[in-house]
Amino acid sequence: MAENNQMPTTIDAVEKLLLDNNYVGDRALSTVLFLALKMGRPLFLEGEAGVGKTEIAKVLASGLERPLIRLQCYEGLDVNSAVYEWNYAAQMMEIRMREASQDKDIKSIKKSVFSDEFLIERPLLQAIRGESGKAPILLIDELDRTDEAFEAFLLEILSDFQITIPELGTIKAEEPPIVIVTTNRTREIHDALKRRCLYHWVDYPDAAREMEIVKRKVPEISDQLSAEIVEFVQRLRDQNLYKNPGIAESLDWATALIELDKIALDPQAITDTLGVLLKYQDDIAKIEGDQSTKILNSVKSELAAAS
């Protein structure tokens, strides 16, 4: 954890912050995180689903003791859902109460109903209005799910860290939030937005790093089971599946097998739990049965030879 909520001053300090919060990253990730914090630039994280992109923002929030504000993107996301909207029902009640009290001052009524009292802050406005000295971590998650119009709007906000509300004026961040943008690359994000950010591709971990992740996240697992799970999953990612299992699936599978009191992989256990690891029936059909047994035998042979 960063001392006194201060930013890490070295790449090694960033590595320690990640590990202290059980995130096992590589040196390249620590370096780009350090630079993003040091330069005050948004960090654009791209990679397959389930490789730990969202978790990076959560770890930063925990390690720096900053609030995490998450904007979960989806198709059709608009300004009202992402930035702000007015509480129309409350505004109408206020107007009727003013009318009932014979208050006919239109300017006074307008000033009253278009005030902070009736403003509903959504994630982007919450991040812009963050507390000075403790700016939040703003996670813009799965940006590729939105359309290009929202992407263009976001570009303007990330350029100046300010939002204009016609009835209230321009609200500028006293201290810009720490911004993490993630995408699963279901579509390309425009270069103009990428140029505002530092970029990092988050890949699947190698076997050694995935082993450390499993042991940190599922500490009760045996060495044999963790080794077999990791090697099996690593080989699955070479099977040309529609959707490769990510780290999240590896951890879920490890937890599920422990719940079933397994101390090692066997063909029946794989058949019974393959749906924890793979999420598409075509992938399950491709792996279950003889293929999973073949992969398991290869895993066990390699681990036996290495021991």
Keywords:
307 residues, alpha/beta, Rossmann fold, two-stranded antiparallel ribbon, 15 helices, elongated
Chain-wise SSE layout:
Elements: H1 11-20, H2 27-39, E1 43-46, H3 53-64, E2 68-72, H4 79-82, E3 84-86, H5 88-100, H6 106-113, E4 119-121, H7 123-128, E5 137-141, H8 148-160, E6 162-165, E7 169-172, E8 178-183, H9 191-194, E9 198-201, H10 207-217, H11 223-236, H12 247-259, H13 267-277, H14 281-287, H15 290-306
Parallel strand pairs: 1-8, 1-9, 2-5, 5-8
Antiparallel strand pairs: 3-4, 6-7
Task: Please provide a written account of the structure.
- The structure is a single chain.
- The protein has 307 residues and is an alpha/beta fold.
- It folds into three domains: 3-75 and 122-201, Rossmann fold (3-Layer(aba) Sandwich), CATH 3.40.50; 84-116, no CATH class; 207-306.
- It is built from 15 helices and nine strands.
- It has helices at residues 11-20, 27-39, 53-64, 79-82, 88-100, 106-113, 123-128, 148-160, 191-194, 207-217, 223-236, 247-259, 267-277, 281-287, 290-306; strands spanning 43-46, 68-72, 84-86, 119-121, 137-141, 162-165, 169-172, 178-183, 198-201.
- The chain has a five-stranded parallel β-sheet with strand order 2-5-8-1-9.
- The longest helix has 17 residues, at 290-306.
- It starts with 10 loop residues before the first helix and ends with a helix.
- The model has no long low-confidence stretch (mean pLDDT 92).
Largest sheet: number of strands, sense, barrel closure: 5 strands, parallel
Helix/sheet category? alpha/beta
**Could you give the distance between the termini?**
37 Å
Q: How many separate domains?
A: 3
- CATH evolutionary superfamily of the largest domain: P-loop containing nucleotide triphosphate hydrolases
Q: Predict the CATH topology of the largest domain.
A: Rossmann fold
Number of helices: 15
Number of strands: 9
What is the alpha-carbon Rg in Å?
24 Å
Helix content: 40-55%
Report strand order across the widest sheet.
2-5-8-1-9
Taken in chain order, the helices and strands follow as HHEHEHEHHEHEHEEEHEHHHHHH
Overall pLDDT score: 92
Inertia-based shape: elongated
